[in-house]
Design a protein that fits this description.
Shape: globular
Number of strands: 7
Strand order of the largest sheet: 1-2-3-7-6-5-4
Mean pLDDT: 84
Radius of gyration: 20 Å
Distance between the termini: 27 Å
Low-confidence stretches: 1-9, 233-241
Number of helices: 5
Largest sheet: 7 strands, antiparallel
């Protein structure tokens, strides 16, 4: 994704897509190596501190490596993405606090939908803006403006059947992608949903998903008369019924 957009509130996030790859493919190994490199950089200080704190008389050596963290994150994300329909993808984010990664990977399910109505107000029902049975209180509603369309974010607190509290972040936007070449302009509805369980992450997830929404809109626009960086829009008409 592009990294030339300002963060909506100055909170730094890093966003990428989980690729459509399978174990054994060259692309799978390349992406896994990329994840290992990222997490090795992000976890180096914390890993060194944990290694120093490991008891010298422990029966086993310090069991964790940055390589294990990156590979574990890659496998976990691919498992989240493998059963999604063709019009959906997983984006994953990393939230930074004081220059250090605090939460990663944070998955967000993103769906590209053919508009079901001329008026995008129907998306308010899609994201359950009026609330759900498992919401602990009425959701908060925030509006988002992008260069090619507007959207909405819904945040609510809920509880699982086991009683665990979580934050529900659902978002949607109508994007009007400008024409390129001889093709006509395209309208697509994009929905995003995330579930987070850490209290600190609940406070940051809205700003992070807003940045992701801005990046999706930005990457749908053809750059310098060429192809758009994000090529999922054309699939929307044949994907979501």
């Amino acid at each position: 994704m592009s990294d030339d957009l300002p963060e909506p509130t100055g909170l730094p996030w890093h966003w990428e897509w989980v690729p459509d790859v399978r174990p054994g493919e060259d692309e799978h190994e390349a992406w896994t190596a990329h994840m290992v490199s990222l997490f090795a950089d992000w976890t180096s200080q914390g890993m060194a501190a944990a290694r120093l704190a490991w008891p010298g008389d422990a029966e086993v050596e310090f069991p964790f490596t940055s390589d294990m963290v990156g590979r574990g994150a890659a496998e976990w994300l691919l498992d989240r993405a493998k059963d999604l329909p063709p019009y959906a993808r997983v984006a994953w984010g990393a939230a930074f606090v004081n220059g250090t990664v605090r939460w990663a990977p944070v998955p967000v399910i993103v769906e590209f939908r053919h508009p079901q109505a001329e008026d995008p107000i129907y998306l308010m029902k899609v994201v359950d803006a009026a609330g759900r049975d498992d919401d602990a209180r009425l959701p908060t509603v925030d509006y988002v403006t992008t260069p090619i369309g507007d959207g909405v974010q819904i945040f609510a607190l809920g509880r699982t059947e086991e009683g665990t509290a979580f934050g529900r972040l659902d978002a949607a936007m109508r994007l009007d992608v400008p024409p390129r070449g001889g093709a006509a302009s395209v309208s697509t509805d994009v929905t995003l949903n995330a579930r987070v369980f850490e209290l600190g992450l609940m406070a940051l997830i809205g700003a992070g998903v807003e940045q992701l929404m801005q990046q999706i809109a930005n990457d749908c626009v053809p750059a310098d008369g060429g192809s758009a960086r994000l090529g999922f829009v054309a699939a929307a008409e044949g994907g979501q019924p």
